[in-house]
Amino acid sequence: MTNDEPRMLPDCHLAVHAKGLRTTLVLLVVMLVTGCCGNRDGAESRVRPSYRSQDVRFRNAEARLELAGTLTLPTATGPHPAVILISGTGPQDRDETVAGHKPFLVLAEYLARRGIAVLRYDDRGVGASTGDFAAATIRDFASDGRAAVKFLQSQKEIDGRRIGLAGHSEGGIVAPMVALDIPGQVAFLVLLAAPGLPGEQIFYLQDAVEARAMGTDEATIARSRTRKQQIFTVLKGEPKLDKAADILRRVMKSMSLTVEEESQLAVQGLKLDDLINQQIRMLNSAAMRLFLVYDPVPALMRVTVPVLALTGERDLQVPPDENLPVIEAALAAGTCPDYTVRKMPGLNHLFQTSQTGLPRDYASIKETVAPAALETIADWILSTGQQRTRGAR
């Protein structure tokens, strides 16, 4: 997920962690240059055609807001195939800036050098985009994605038959929604660290996998899951926000704290009531409620365009062994004409080369996006686009 994913800490009352299914997903589900350029090694150094970028604005008439972004174009004469980047959980700028890295900037520049135009944009209510991010759900982000497709269709340098979507983390849930909303207008999907499981299961899985990687004992992991189950049960069972808030407050106050958790609160200078209120504001929202229960599988089974699904081997936020098989099975059982599902060796949730996969290491890794990931994405898009042009699909 990315500023992603919703995660919760201290475990006792779910303080949300940052980055990974918008930092925090609501997690949901977490992404991928420091400075202005990103990594220029590996694959990028071998592909040197230049590109040009321009700031753009386009309107989402349905939501009555305006989105601001950057369109990166190859210098060669068009029309070009194009891809729209859809960010992960949390309020993201057009570069999906996280931990000092700008993965969407790196990806846009690389793809443009390979002859693929890229549109990336600030989330609604973020940066130069208008709208209210806090009130938005994944369905609202799909609305923004549809507006982005419509904008690219109006650009003479873009091949309207070859416009695809690339969603990272939670964006990997949004992208298929967009494709299904406007049949025949999206040519392909790239799902980067996308969840295959419902949001609630992603939360449990993410917390357990990361905790084990940090050496946490199983009893503590089980206690964390039980607490979250109690909270999620309230969110799923009580539709009225005010009533749910009262129940959540009682449930959270009934949770006994360990000595270590009490110490953490003291060190941070936080009162328990203040932390509980903070967590309730974050959790008791339309976005979280939808994310918890949304199952990506039905949408994946209805997809009718080629799909590339990539997840890093060391992704601890959307673990590959539990999510990729679900995605592959859904695509195989449904109407997808062609799909490639791949676990990328040694890469984390941001597609950096990583030894641990832990989110705390994102900032210390110099690489923004591994060359292998960049190459795989570009090669697949170009190959898929050529086949579609020949009528193979």
What are the defining features of this structure?
41% helix; 393 residues; globular; disordered C terminus; 15% strand; eight-stranded mixed β-sheet; alpha/beta; 13 helices; disordered N terminus
Question: Mind explaining what this structure looks like?
Answer:
The chain is an alpha/beta fold and 393 residues long. The chain has helices at residues 42-46, 103-113, 138-153, 171-181, 199-213, 218-237, 241-254, 259-268, 272-283, 286-293, 297-302, 320-333, 371-389; strands spanning 51-60, 65-74, 80-86, 117-121, 158-168, 189-192, 307-312, 339-344. The protein has an eight-stranded mixed β-sheet, with helices on both faces. α4 (171-181) links the parallel β5 (158-168) and β6. α6 (218-237) packs antiparallel against α7 (241-254). The longest helix is centred in the middle third of the chain and has 20 residues, at 218-237. It is globular. It starts with 41 loop residues before the first helix and ends with a helix.
